Amino acid sequence: MSHRTQIGVLALTATILVAGVVAVACFGGGSSTQVDSGNRDAQPQTQRLAPLLTGYSANIKLEQIPTDDVRRAVGANETLYLRCTDRTSGFSHELYVAYWRPGNLYCFESVLHPPDSCWSGSGWYSPEGRSDVVIPTGTGRLGPVEWRKFVAQGAASQEVAFWCMNGYRRWLLGNRTSLTGLIDIVRATRFFSLVMDWIRADQWLDLKERGWISAPVKHDVFFVRFNSPHPIDEVVRSEAFEVQFAQLAQWGLLPSAREDFR
Predict the structure, then answer these.
(1) Residue 19: in which H helix or E strand, if any?
(2) Beta strand pairing call for 221-228 and 155-166
(3) Cross-strand bridge partners of residue 258
(4) Are 192 and 198 in contact (CB under 8 A)?
(5) Is the pLDDT of residue 65 over 70?
(6) For 84-105, what is each residue's pLDDT tens digit?
(7) Whole-angstrom Cα distance, residue 257 to residue 261?
(8) CA-closest candidate to residue 52, choices 259, 251, 260, 262
(9) What average pLDDT does the chain have?
(10) Tens-digit pLDDT profile for residues 180-223
(11) pLDDT of 122
(12) C-beta atoms surrounding 28 within 10 Å
């Protein structure tokens, strides 16, 4: 092994150790996951998510919740938070989408703030949760996605479905305190890709060609979350959800078991 390769391996090891400390700090039980937006450069704001604001009938009450602070905190190019209520049935759900365009160095934030950490850090508790859940809808299926039930004192329980897409492939989330979750976080960092590209130059091991290295900065990255006080398997058959489902499908943001990003 050449001296250059040895230095690269040491740098990669240091990256993993630092990520381990970050993971413990961010994902430990009951810890807060607030992000210091002062460490995030302001990213150019896009209008990629604007179509999610249209296409609803008068029967749907649509409320857009401001998210600019969240957008800056996670370094996203765009965030959208909608509260949708069916005036006839009374069914309601919320949709949150965050978007990092190609070249955004903060796209690794997409896997750092799942409800498992952010909601738990805000007083919610999840007594039930499953991975790779497939939920039939009126016109197709939603899944495989992460599903959780959250409860909090003095608040209605919430069912939550969420996932992350790197290009047209699902980025596995699951339990972010696991070793697999830690590896995903490390692989998502720009520094990791730079170190591995540097090792590649020495022709020690062509890891990127073997698919061991993610390159999220080269793709659109989206985090999508639905939540509702009503059962998710009923919400997905609502009029508002069907509008959003169709738009997400058009963008290629519905996860497929054949295209998981591992």
Answers:
(1) helix 3-27
(2) antiparallel
(3) none
(4) no
(5) yes
(6) 999 988 889 999 999 999 878 7
(7) 10
(8) 251
(9) 74
(10) 445 545 555 555 555 655 554 443 344 444 444 444 457 888 99
(11) 84
(12) 14
pLDDT band of 146, cuts 50, 70, 90? very high
Spell out the residues 6+ positions from residue 69 whose beta carbon is closer than 8 angstroms to its own: 37
Per-residue pLDDT at 102: 87
Q: Residue 177's closest CA among 111, 122, 128, 132? A: 111
Whole-Å CA distances, 57 to 18, 29, 230: 49, 42, 21
* CATH 1.20.140 for the 43-176+214-261 domain, yes or no: no
How far separated are the first and last CA of the chain, in Å rounded? Answer: 28
Q: Are strands 141-152 and 92-100 parallel, antiparallel or unpaired?
A: unpaired
For 186, counting Cβ atoms within 10 Å of its Cβ (0-12 exposed, 13-18 middle, 19+ buried), the class is buried
Per DSSP, what are the bridge partners of residue 92?
Answer: 85
Q: Which helix (H) or strand (E) holds 133?
A: strand 125-136
* Structure tokens, 247: 């738009």
- Angle at Cα 126 formed by Cα 122 and Cα 128, nearest 5°? 165
C-alpha to C-alpha distance for 91 and 113, rounded to whole angstroms: 27
Q: For residue 26, which amino acid is it?
A: C
pLDDT: is 8 or 61 the higher one? 61
Band of residue 116 on the pLDDT scale cut at 50, 70, 90: confident
Q: How many CA atoms lie within 13 A of 156 on its CB side?
A: 10
- One-letter amino acid for residue 122 of the chain: S
| Percentage of the chain exceeding pLDDT 90 | 33
| 217 contacts 190 by C-beta, under 8 angstroms | yes
- The CA distances from residue 39 to 29, 233, 247, in Å, are 24, 39, 33
CB atoms under 10 Å from CB of 90, counted, come to: 8
